Amino acid sequence: MIRHLTIIILALLYTTSGYGQSLEASNDDPGWNGLKTRKGSFFFHWGYNRDYYRNTDIHYKGKGFDFTIYDVNAHDIPEEFSAKVYFNPTKLTIPQFDFRIGYFLDENYSVSLGWDHMKYRISEYQLVRIDGFIDEELSEEFGQVYNNENIILSPAMLRFEHSDGLNFIRAGIERQSVILQTKNQRLRLEQFMGVSLGLATPWTDVTFLGKRYKNWLHVAGWGTSALMGLRAHYGNNLFLQYRMQVGYLNLSDILLQDEADSRGNHDIKFTELSVSLGYNFRKGKK
Question: What is the domain-level CATH number for residue 90?
Fold first, then answer.
């Protein structure tokens, strides 16, 4: 369903890209929060996402092991829908969510800062290629030298996930333009696109050879992304947003075990689809 909606959105963006226009208040409309411009106004939005990951290579190194697994498949971990979770202010951060707050530089350009809370888990019992070694003192079953060979990645050997959050804290710039609107601008449909850059800060949960390590939030690397989507505005303030974001995360310093030199690293190429509810406002204006 989400993928079909994405195809429709992309087709609409493509067919309307030549008809974008600046937002200007009509003579009969008071404009953004009683003014005839949204320059200098603010916005924020909150929503939920689904994430799709390209296969990746992951390197693990620590006391008694140094190996890489190749072409690893992973998936997100969406929270099952429950009104007690999704509409409970004390539990809003449990699902995969997005939050942003931004500022309009002029009628069409805005800057923003926000938090994309994704989740990442490698798939169990998949066939992967492995190269490196695990000390026999650590495991009779898995301790050996691996020479670029295929194995089934079982939970007894390794479970690896950024399940308390694969967090992407990013700053971005976007351009918005109106593609459809009523005469008085009370109903508007906008297209937007932008780019962003930020830090990757995962909470990594790893079980290696039967022992589990739940690590604290840690700045593990950086990321960048490009995005596009649609916003449906009702009045001057309220809007509903659908967005597709394509990005790259370079996680070069992942915490594994308690030892200081126990680290992992991999990069992640992802596609994020999200739906958010937002609000525009001007400081000092009701």
Answer: 2.40.160.20
Which among 42, 173, 44 is positioned nearest to 98, based on CA atoms? 44
Query: Torsion over CA of 238, 246, 115 and 58, rounded to 10 degrees?
Result: 160
DSSP state of 55: -
Domain assignment of residue 192, yes or no: yes
Q: What is the mean pLDDT of the chain?
A: 88
286 located within any domain: no
Q: What is the C-alpha separation between 152 and 73, in angstroms, rounded?
A: 12
CA distance 213 to 259: 11
What letter would DSSP give residue 136?
Answer: T
User: What's the number of domains the chain is made of?
Assistant: 1
CA angle centred on 115, ends 215 and 163, rounded to 5°: 35
If one counts every other C-beta atom within 10 angstroms of the C-beta of residue 154, the result is 13
10 Å CB burial of residue 46 (0-12, 13-18, 19+) is middle
pLDDT tens, residue by residue, 188-243? 999 999 999 999 999 999 999 999 999 999 999 999 999 999 999 998 889 999 99
pTM metric for this prediction: 0.86
- The shares of helix, strand and coil residues in the chain, as percent rounded to the nearest 5, are 10, 60, 30
- For 138-178, write each residue's pLDDT tens digit: 999 999 999 999 999 999 999 999 998 999 999 999 999 99
What DSSP assignment string belongs to 140-204?
Answer: TTT-EEEEEEEEEE-TTTEEEEEEEEEEEEEEEEEEEEEEEE-TTSSEEEEEEEEEEEEEEEE--
- Residue 23 sits at φ, ψ, to 5 deg, of -90, 115
| Whole-number Å distance between alpha carbons of 262 and 211 | 14
Q: 184 is written with which tokens?
A: 């008085």
- Cα angle at 32 between 228 and 23, to 5 degrees? 50
- Residue 98: alpha-carbon gap to chain centroid: 7
Single-letter amino acid code for the residue at 240: L
Q: Which residue segment(s) compose the domain that 143 sits in?
A: 2-281
